[in-house]
Structure formats: C-alpha cells, structure tokens
Amino acid sequence: MNRTGNNPHIFGVRHLSPGGSYHLLQFLDEVQPEAVLIEGLSDANSQIPHFTSSDTKPPVAILAYTEELPVRTILYPFADYSPEYQALVWVRKHGAHAEFIDLPSDVFIPLDYQLADKPADKPVVKPADKSADKPTDKPEDKLAEQTEQPEPPEPPLVSRSDIYEHWAKVAGEEDHETYWEYNFEHNLNRDAYRLASFEFGRSMRELLMDAPLEYAKNIVREAYMRNRIANAIRSGYRPEKIVVVTGAYHASALNSDAEPMSDEEFDKLPRVRTKLTLMPYSYYRLSSRSGYGAGNNAPAYFGLMWESFRKGCFEKLPAGYLSRIAAYLRENGTHRSSAEVIEGVRLANTLAALHLGSAPSNRDLRDAAVVCLGYGELSTVAEAIANTDIGTAIGSLREGVSRTSIQDDFYRELKRLKLERYRSAVAMDLDLDLRENRRVQSEEAAYLDLSRSFFLHRLKVLNISFQQMKQKTQQSATWSESWVLQWTPEAEIELVESTLRGETVELAAAYVFKERLDNSQSIPDAAKVIREACECGMMESMEQARQALQRLAVDSGSFIEIAEAAFNLSLVISYGDIRKFDTSHLVPLLQQLFLRGSLLMPDAARCDNTAARAGIGAVNYMNAVSLEHFETIDEELWIKKLMELSDADDRNPLLSGYACAILLERNKIDGVKLAQEVSRRLSPGIEADLGAGWFEGLSMRNRYALLARMNLWEQLNEYVNSLDQEQFKRALVFLRRAFGDFSPGEKRSICENLGEIWGTGREDASDLLHRELNEEEQKKIDELNEFDFGDI
Fold it and tell me: Distance between CA atoms of 22 and 82, rounded to whole angstroms?
C-alpha cells in the first residue's frame, strides 16, 4: 500500500498518461482533498491560474531558464490528458488548494546540469545474491563453473530505458510502450492504476540504485517534496485530505520514513538566477520521436484515448483510430471503405487477445491498419498512421500570459504583419514581393511584404527556427523572396533564450550584430554583417559594420577576402532601392575594395591548384561586381588585369584559363586571339599539368561558345595525340574533371566535333563514344584507376 496511518495519499502516475488521469479524477472525487500537491517546479505556483484558464489550450509547458549566458533551460510539458493538468482542472472546479512541490528552478537547473556535465551513470540490474557467485580460489571449482555455465551473461543494462525494455521482455512484450498500455492504460478497475504504478515505481527504484548521480539527484528532490508536504500539513491541511500527484518512480519515497529536507539544508543548495515562463507546446514535441524523454510514441493517439475515457466509450477507440486513418487516406486520394475499417477493428481485437490484452494497443491498431488499410504495405499508410499517432496539435495561451518581452514583441509582430496563420506545426510557403504595392492606400500595407522580410531576416540572425529561406536561383529577381514557415516549441525556447540579448526582436538582432563586429577578424565578416543588416532593415547596425569594414580593409592583403567583401557590399548597394535606404555612402568603400582586389589578383594567381579553386570563386565575385556596377568601379582596370592573368605563363594555369573564359564571354578577345592562345597553351610538348589545367579553367564558363569553335577541338585533339603514355594519364585527371559536369547534350556535341575531326562522321562518333565498354577497354580503364597520380 502507498498510504499508512494519517499520511497523505500518494498517487504515482506516468506524466503523459490518459489512464492515469482517468483513475486520478476518480480518486480525487472519492477523497475530496483539501489540497492537491503536484510534482512540478515550485516557483511556478503563480502560473497555476493560467493553466486552468478558459483561454488555455494544451499542450503547454513551463519553461525555466537562467538569466545569464550560457542559457540553461528546463521544460515541464503538459497535455490535456496529463494527470498533473487534470489535477489542476479538478482543483479549480472544487475550490481546493493546488501547489507544485518539486525543487524551484533556481536549484533544479544547476543540479540537473551538474549531473549532465559529469560522466554518465551506468545503472545495472542488481543480481540476486547466490552462493555460486562468490569468488573461489580453487582452480577445479573455477573449471567446474566454466563448464557448467557455457552461456555468457547478459550485458548490464545501462539506462532507465534499458530497464524498461528489459522489464517488458520479462513480461512477454516486445516493447515497454505496449507493456504499459496493456497493463496500465487499459486497466479500468478501481484503484488498479494507483496500486500498480506504486509497485512499478518502487521496483524501478530498486533496479536503478546503482546509478549514484541520478539517484542522488532524486534523493534531493524527494527530500524537498517531503518538506513541502510537511509544510502543507503545518499550514492546516489534514493529511488524509491531501493528495500528492507525482511520477511513479517517486511515489514510494514520499510516504517513507525518511526525513524531509530542512529549511537550513534547502538554503545551502547551489543556485543560479532564473526566470520562468509558460509557452505553447505541440504534440510533435511531446512525441518521444522528437527527443523528449518523458513523452510517448503517439501523443495524438493518447489524446483519442483520453476523449474515449471522458465520454465513457473506451470500447470505441479502435474504430475511431482506424476511421481517422481511413479518412486521412481518402483526403489524400486513396479510398478505403467502412467494411475495411470494420475488418481492421476485428483484426486489432484478435491481436490483443493473442497477447491476453483486454483491448487493442497502439501497436495492434497500427498492425491492423497496415494489413487492412494498407493491404500489407506500410508505405501506403505510414503518413496516415503518423498523422493519427502524433498529430499536429499546438497549444495556446491567452495573449501576454507570462511571456518575456521578446516573446510579446514576436507575437505583436506576427499580428501586425498578418503572419499569425503561419504559426502552425505544418510547414507553409510564403512568397514575398518587396516592391511597393500601389493598389493599397496605407503606406504600411504598401510595404507589408518588405516589413515581413525585415522581420524574418531578424529571426534568421537570432537563429530562431520559425523560418527558413529558400535558396535563390540565378533567375530569381532581387525583389522576390521565398520562405518556408513552421512553428515549433524549439522556436519558442530560442526566443526566450534571446531575451538576454534584447527586449525586442530588433534589439536582440542589433546585439548579435554588435557582438559579431566586436569579434570580427576579417573584412568578409564585417561585409557579411553589412549585407545581413541591410536585409534586416537595420541602418544603424549597417553603419557600424561599414566602419568596421573600412578599418579592417586597411590591413588586409587577401584577394579572396577583399573579393568576397566587395561582392557582399555590391549586393547591399543593389538592394538599396528595393529596401528603401540610401546606399551612396557605401559606394566609395566599394570602389576602394574593387581597386585593391583588381591589383591583388595577378599576384594571388601564383598558387597551387587547391588555392586556385578558391581563387576562382573570388574572381567570380569580382567579375559580378564589375558587371553590376560598371558605372562606378574601374572596369577598365579589371579587364586589364584579366588580360594580364590570361596571357601569363607563370600563373596557375587553371586561373589563367578561367580569366581567358571570362574575357571570351565579355567579347574582349576574338576568335583569332583565342585560336592563338589555344595553340600556345595546347602545343605538343606542353606538360599535361599546364595544358590540361588551362583547358579545365577555360571550360568552366560559356561552354556553348567553346563547342562552336572547331579549331579549339582540333588543337585539343593534336595536343592529346602528342602526349606520351604517362603524360596522357596525367592529362586525363584534368580533362576528366573539366568534362565531369558537362551535360549529356554538351558531351554529345563534343563527340560530334571529334567525329568530324577524326573523319568518322558526327553521329557515328557520338554513338561510338556513348556505347558500353568492351572487356579490353574496361581493362584499360581499370589499369588507369590503379595509376599512381602522385601529387596531382
């Protein structure tokens, strides 16, 4: 029993248990307590009225967090069917006293994280005390033990989940969830849940005593909870009129003979400064699949079970579950009949009977859905099962309830920007047009999408996972943005953590920008802040970043860094008109960066192939700036430096070839000049690393122009024919890489060109080179794969 003499009633539960709620409410009606004491952060007692408000829709959670960085958090989630939540609802209806009695967050958090920072406990099942287990010094006895016990011992259980699964297997079930559901959730006999959970929790304590750190933490918690129980009795509540609702693991410890924690002992516990808030939660987050340890596999399914308990029709749960799956399938274009649902219910009942269950478990129902609604294919019903098991429900709280200032600002902005409907567990697309909408009357409405963009970019800076920006394509207009919005409890937690950076989303983003500028060591860092501040519509942060960039640029001699910074700055200037701010003060800085980048490029091309590939990105940045801002930067100097690099024999050939490709693309060299350069670079006797490397750079841009120049392919053919076997193999490294990302159509054009050069006909050569290799040709390829390419 879990109650002796005049001790309070202890009711042990699983934290997300509809059966626990069903039995607890019956027990409360029977006892009619004056006080209900609940496992939960004791500094959250002021929030209890909000839990039971008519404006509150579970799931919701208590979130406590530290006031200093790094932010540490602890979360107490509640579903509608959580016993603790239903206890609070009962208290409100009956005018009793409710109180959370676990450690306050300022003690709980440091205690929790101190344990997390230490080596993990390895609890094991304590073996029975057998004489055969005693050590012996006799060799013959040891030999006898080895021959009599050939089976190796089972490995020790190393976590609470291991203990649960081991317990289930001993009981004849495949997993703990199904064991718990058969034996606890489905057992509607009076007092069955309370007594069974008490014994279950006591057994768990005995099995887990070899986890000293975890066990010690629970000893501290339980001593404090006994303190609060004793305090309730001192306050005048009769012990027999007190009900304590706690996790089953703690139940046997709260009515034990152990002493409660004294006030002096409590005062000596380590503390940190914390704050506490309520937040909406979601069924997905409650699902153990999302990582929450005290969750369950199917929160929406247990919500269905709770509804069946409340309506007194538990026997209709299987039909309701399978009907929902069938309805989901129909909504998505797969028709299933009522007869198939009925057959599924019959199969689920049969499966439960085979396990001696009084009703089908969630596993039985899923198996029946696969057989009768999926016709044996899980893939057919997997999405429907996930929707019915987990669901997309999100809780809600009355506006302004226990929110931090940044949370309040976030929700105000959602409302102002008409984004409230996107606060959904289902991902939704949002396309923005940043241009002025001239069809509306107010200025706010005219620039609604622009304001939305500013807001979403600020959230992005704060790493708040409410939004994700889609990757832009080359064809994307500068005035358009595409986002995917999806609300998660993690986003709410990230908002709360941002409280330490500022009271509003904008102020917090400004703090992040300043922090990044204070720590920036390179001009690309500062340039990136300029760009992001521009996207956020934060002019003051942008100006701070401009000053930092100008300061850092004085000492920078890196072509790659300067090119990246110039590119980011050019984007900001290009966005100026769209985002409605003056960029004229940024133009001199862009001119300065572009001038230095142009002058540094030729010397930066004295590098190896690894550095050259990074250099190609920098050349691309500079060329993009030149094309976009040709009226303001020194384009003539840029072309001159490209010519210098293209003509140079003492620079990296990949970069020289790439510079030649850009000049060809910009009509700065003609066919005659290109033919001369090809002839020079691909002359017989030119080393493979130089010739093939140059051609690889040339082929990276404007391929259609290259394909149309037959003399280029003639020269390449002569060059390859001039190579000896070893040089040919080295050249293949570069040529294979050069042609590796050509499209099939481009490769066919190359084959046709070569066919014409070889005199075999364009079509015949293409077909010949696209056919499968014969055995001898494959052998040659295999030999090539074994070739030692050395430092290539």
Answer: 10
What is the rounded distance in angstroms from the CA atom of residue 310 to the CA atom of residue 291? 29
**Measuring CA to CA, how many Å separate 359 from each of 181, 318, 341, 720?**
9, 8, 16, 77
Q: For strands 242-247 and 9-13, give the pairing.
A: parallel
Is-cis flag, bond preceding 59, omega within 30? yes
Whether the Cβ atoms of residue 47 and residue 112 lie closer than 8 Å to each other:
no
Separation between Cα atoms, residue 562 and residue 619, nearest integer Å = 11
DSSP character for 471? P
pLDDT tens-place string over residues 661-699: 899 889 898 777 877 777 777 766 667 677 777 878 887
Max Cα–Cα distance, the chain, nearest Å: 107
Sheet arrangement for strand 274-280: 73-78, 60-66, 274-280
**Alpha carbons within 13 A on the beta-carbon side of 246:** 30
SS3 605: coil
Give bridge partners of residue 276 from the DSSP assignment: 64
| Mean pLDDT per 10-residue segment, the chain (792 residues) | 68 95 97 97 94 90 83 88 97 97 95 63 37 37 36 49 79 87 93 94 80 81 96 96 96 87 95 89 76 70 97 96 97 94 97 94 97 96 95 83 82 93 90 88 88 96 92 69 89 81 91 92 90 92 91 86 92 80 87 94 91 92 94 94 92 92 88 76 70 79 67 70 75 66 70 71 62 69 54 44
List, for residues 407-444, the tens digit of each pLDDT value.
889 989 999 999 999 988 889 999 999 888 888 878 88
**Cα distance between residue 637 and residue 592, in whole Å:** 13
Beta-strand ranges (E) seen in 209-336 are 242-247, 274-280
For the stretch 686-691, contacts whose Cβ atoms lie closer than 8 Å and that sit 24 or more positions apart, written own/partner, are: 686/719, 687/727, 688/723, 688/727, 688/728, 688/730, 688/731, 688/734, 689/653, 689/730, 689/734, 689/792, 690/653, 691/653, 691/719, 691/731
CB 121 within 8 A of CB 113: no
Hey, which residues does 76 pair with through a beta bridge? 62
Quote the pTM value.
0.66
- Contact criterion met (CB below 8 Å) for 59 and 50: no
Shortest CA distance to 713 belongs to which of 763, 765, 752, 663?
A: 752
Contact yes or no for 288/301 (Cβ under 8 A)? no
Look up residue 542 and give its two tokens. 């942008």
Nearest to 498 by CA among 403, 406, 400, 414: 406
Q: Measuring CA to CA, which residue among 729, 731, 707, 733 is closest to residue 719? A: 731
- Integer Cα distance of 244 and 166 in angstroms: 29
Placement of tokens 């590796």 in the chain: 740
* Beta-carbon contacts of residue 235 (< 8 Å; ≥ 6 apart): none
In the chain, what is the straight-line distance between the N-terminal and C-terminal CA atoms, in Å?
78
Distance set, CA 656 to CA 446, 643, 687, 710 (Å): 49, 9, 15, 21
Can you tell me the distance from the alpha carbon of 42 to that of 448, in angstroms, rounded to the nearest whole number? 44
Beta strands (DSSP E) in 423-471 are 428-433, 467-469
pLDDT in the model for residue 38: 98
Handedness of CA 458, 460, 466, 468 (dihedral sign): positive
